[in-house]
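Quick one: structure tokens for this chain, please?
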Amino acid sequence: MELRDIEIFLTLADELHFGRTAERLHISPPRVSQAIAKQERRIGAPLFERTSRKVTLTPLGEQLRADLQAGYRRILDGVESAATTARGGPDTLTFGVLGPMWQEISPITALFRRRHPTVELRMREIRIDEPYALLREREIDVALLWLPVEEDDLTVGPVTFTEPIVVAAGRTHQLAGRPSVPLAELASLSVVPSGLPIPEYWESAVSPVPASATALRTREEVMWAVLSGDSVAFACAQGIKYLERADLVYVPIDERPTLRWGLVRRAGRLDRLVGEFFRVAEELGPLELDIAIEPAELSRLRSVG
């Protein structure tokens, strides 16, 4: 089995979708189908069950995935190590962030630069609908992401900071003038999901109370429901800092739930500079993105974070 065919198999085993697998590997869907069919002919049995609704691994496919995954990672690590040695050691470290959150780890990047003045530190923005793509495609070395991260091919490093989760409501909602609200009360209200194209476990992490209006699927549908005054949504406090607008209020939650952010890398051998970046983050300890919401500010209406 060729290395590219192994990569296609493992990617499809992860995505369980031919189209997404093709996009991730920058090839055509027919190329994915051909590679899998070739592997199944060689092995003599199906590796995937395919229906019009979903793709799943067969028990044999699960076994092959387990057998190939560790060896494939060792091959990639070996090639990367050889390339690093050939160029006399890495001289760049590229990290990825969601939106403007690079500003929140400036103490980490500043200290890393002081300790490694000859290393060029680069930043790439991560798309929220593809939070792991740049890591998997080796476009970045480390990513700053929401936690948890439940991906077999990725490893979570130190927690970098936490931020409060608050409630976003329209100006006419009953919560708009409140200094705070308990979670028990929120459970009796119409709570809408984030509307973001994020993993389900991220949705749970940012929603201390499950959404009751699950039919809403897009950000604009969520915004409409909240601005109509009938529903509320959970928001990250950084939205107050970076996404101001004049038609929403943020209300603190009595129990002060938080969202954690952490550094994430590819599983396998730890790159030297990624390890140094992790050590700086661990040394500084989890930072706290604590944005105060003063009662006088509750009349200033802002956007969902």
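The mean pLDDT is 85.
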